[in-house]
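By convention, each integer encodes one residue's backbone shape. The lines below illustrate.
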Amino acid sequence: MAIALVFVTAALILSNGFAFWGDTVALWIDDAMQLSAGLSGVVCGFLVARRVPGHQRWWRVLVATGMAGWSLGQCVWSWYQLIDGRGLPSPSLADVGYLSFPLFALPALFVLAHARSRPERERWQPAQWFGVAVVLDGLVVTGSLFILTWTAALGQVVRATGPDALTWAVAIAYPLTDLVVVVVAVLLVVFDRVDRPYRANLLLAAVGIVALACSDSVFAYLVSIGAESMKPWSDAGFVLGPLFITFALLFTPRARRHDDAGQAVGVDWWQVALPYLPVTAVALLITVQLLAGAGPDGVEVSVGVLVVFLVLARQLLSLLDNRLLLRRVYEGQLQLTHQAYHDPLTGLANRALFADRLDRAVEQAADGGHRALVLIFVDLDDFKEVNDRFGHAGGDVLLHAVAQRLLSCVRAGDTVARLGGDEFAILLEGELDAPQAVADRIQSALRRPFAVHGTLVPVRASMGLVVPDPAEPLVTSDVLLGRADSSMYAGKRLGKDTTVVYHPSPDSPPDFPSALRRADGGLPEGFALVFQPIVRLADETPVAVEALARWTTRDGTAVSPETFVRAAEGAGLGAELDALVLDLACREITAAGLDLTVHVNVCASRLGAAALEESVGASLDRYRLPADRLIVEITETVPVPDLAAGAAAIRRLQALGVRVALDDFGAGYSSLTVLHALPVDLIKLDRALTTGVQPDRDAALCRSLVGLCADLDVAVVAEGIETAEQAELVVRAGCTTAQGYRFGRPAPLSQLRLSTLSAG
């Protein structure tokens, strides 16, 4: 339809140019066609602008406004030509209307150029704000072409208009404004500055602008030579130009496709060089003029200086663009590097980064750096059950939460990595006094339930711990990882939720129940007790010690207490183990001659068993230990089977003079119900209540529990105190006694500070 209308209009212009029906009728038809085309652009522009949003509305409003001014100029022109009979009057009021069109068309092109949908990170680049680069390129080309046009013909045309300043200004305004608008439109097309859906609008508008410019140039020439009229053929641009502009206003592209949105703007070398080709031509022209002795005139010099400054501004923007591009490339490289060396789910280091850091740590140790190195391999137990229950999305939530817990257990300089699936690795570097303490802290942190989709999920982990021997030559990172992995799997074979410290061993995994049976009531091979002091917080003076069981296999592997205790319980040897610890603790505290109370752990499942009470009485008699110096700690790794029977058993122990404590209160199966039902003498607050992660909440909870126990006449010991801040927290809460690494690590009685201990 549009193509047919163009051909019909062109045919009408051609036939009208022959003036078969006379010159007067031809002029009326010519002016009517011009005015109709202009008014069509005005009406169509405003109507379509009401139906489209954003930039597509505003560029149409600007063009329609410019066409309205042009149409008013055409009305005035028709009056002068047809009614008043002035011929080609210039300057006149018609020039005001005609020249208003480029004033609105130019910003309309810039608005259309801004219709490109760019990523947010690109919109702040200086060379892309409102087509600044296009404006500068257009002005450079315009200025250069103006100099060439002025030298070739325009200068002579303008000089022929006479000395009148207004006449001169009007004469030069037409070619100059047309040149600017045409160049900008061409640059927008050539440089692909407008998205593909809107390129049809730009192409149609550009054709219309070029058509208007052609007829404007003819008009300016005819005015300069004093012509009385313009033939309809010369006015063809004044009819076809507004017609094409109307088509541009009517065309509404379909929505952008996703595949177009991601396409990059391609700029070839010739596109970059295009603005500078006319500049080069101007330089050659001026050189020739200087050699010929003519020299450039004032207009050429003025415009030439302006072009030079425009080129400098364009280069400045190019430098800014290049700097921004380099910055973006650098940021992209950093992002790619981070993605290459970090796990996308947890944000932890991945296997590649962990291997690199482990290699460097091993090399530093091999070079004589004497830098302590500890490797911990962590594998979540029964993680498949979480995926089966909550799906892989729930499993991902849990893995991310586990990663954060692991990070909270190590220092800022240590490395935590996810090796894949539910496997994690931790690299500790620096002076480490007790790497086993880090493993214990990790075990304790992971045992606190995790929230997965609104449900609390308990998590257990098996860990392998490797401390390289400095005397061992040629140890590699792969060897260390293999050792940590084998130690972790050894822990899984022992019953999971364990930490196994690696020691070279060609034997089968350690078997504590067998060692306990072979001892036949005696001391199993590798079994020993260590003692940790319990201090009075006021002066940090020891008032008691807790007996803790340790077992080392024949090859030197230190097996965690959780592992071998669970193995003994599973083999039905829990009672024998409790009796062994009780007897050995009473013997060693008596032999040491220390006037301290000793705490001994007993599983809650044996509370009320006659064998327990017999073992307590026998040990006190055998070593002549005063009953008030023995405290039996009930460890609730399993619930008390019968609270009423348990309460009766506690009273019988208390009748012997022995005190009874409830261990790890606040964790496991301990609760206020248990505290209410069991008449214990003392509770030990679990380390989870004294870590100081949330100091205000921790202090409030501790203060409440201490106040409750004071009302019940129950003493309180705070466990797991490792820092001065934690000690201050429990002091403010009202605790008077505490236990933890801050006051002493577990060790044989002979290695404790005997002078301090004896002061209790």
User: Anything to note?
Assistant: The longest strand covers residues 541-552. The radius of gyration is 46 Å.
